[in-house]
Amino acid sequence: MTNRFEGRRIAVTGAAGGIGRAICESLVAQGAQVHGLDRTGLDGLPDGVAGASIDLLSEESVVSAVRDLYAADDCPVELVNCAGVVEDDVPAEEMPMAQFDLVMGVNLRGVFLTCREFGRELLARGGGAIVNIASMSGNAIVNHPQRQSVYNSSKAAVSALGRSLAVEWGPRGVRVNTVSPGYVDTPLNALKTQMHEQWKRETVLGRFAAPVEIARAVEYFLSEDSAFCCGAELLIDGGFALR
Ligand SMILES: NC(=O)c1ccc[n+]([C@@H]2O[C@H](COP(=O)([O-])OP(=O)(O)OC[C@H]3O[C@@H](n4cnc5c(N)ncnc54)[C@H](O)[C@@H]3O)[C@@H](O)[C@H]2O)c1
């Protein structure tokens, strides 16, 4: 591994989850100072990752997490928004609004809030990179057989938010880009084991992604290799959307 992220401070939300953990592990291995943010599971973060508690449903929690990061050290903190939740196979006509509010609250409001708070500080310090994790569910496909209308809508909004922030902030040095995975082997899918074989069958490459395969794309958008990417979205779905 090279030290290509040496001297960079990067916060990762959802750090205790399947993809977030892989992103943290890989960034630390490449020399970054990584702040793993999550509302739970901070004890199990990879070695070298500094954990801090955050609840994306609370504006106060997000504001104070960012304030604490800068109180400890004034260097810019870049951002990977990886936290997310999905409803369990719920028909739209029966969707409880509490589920709607939870999924939209974490996936859209939470991502907006972290972008606003981290973005403001990056703008004030000359720039940096923000990478949001959306999903193939946002624009490329509608998942099946499970019904997850709110999740799909929230992810379409994350993609639109990334493009919108890229236009507002790109000229001032903050690059915002989006990674949209297909099915990845993580706890997010753990409750839907009966669907796994069908999902794999319908994926051209015939398998789930490993979390590290999503981390590689995040690294690309964080690195100078993607210096001309502004509001881009990379679909990494093993060909699922082609079928
Ligand atoms: N796994 C997949 O197949 C897949 C596919 C496409 C997109 N994604 C997206 O990738 C991202 C990561 O997914 P994953 O598979 O690693 O999921 P995961 O369930 O393993 O991890 C999600 C993390 O988000 C955290 N989180 C949830 N609510 C939070 C809150 N209110 N405040 C702070 N943290 C909170 C959880 O504690 C958890 O650690 C999500 O945005 C997800 O929608 C996943």
UniProtKB/TrEMBL annotation:
What EC number is given for this enzyme? 1.1.1.-
Keyword Oxidoreductase on entry: yes
Q: What class of enzyme is it?
A: oxidoreductase
Transmembrane annotation, as ranges: none
**What's one GO MF term for it?**
oxidoreductase activity
Quote the Pfam families the UniProt record gives.
adh_short_C2
Question: To which protein family does this belong?
Answer: Belongs to the short-chain dehydrogenases/reductases (SDR) family.
Which protein are we looking at?
SDR family NAD(P)-dependent oxidoreductase
Species in which this protein is naturally found? Pseudonocardia aurantiaca
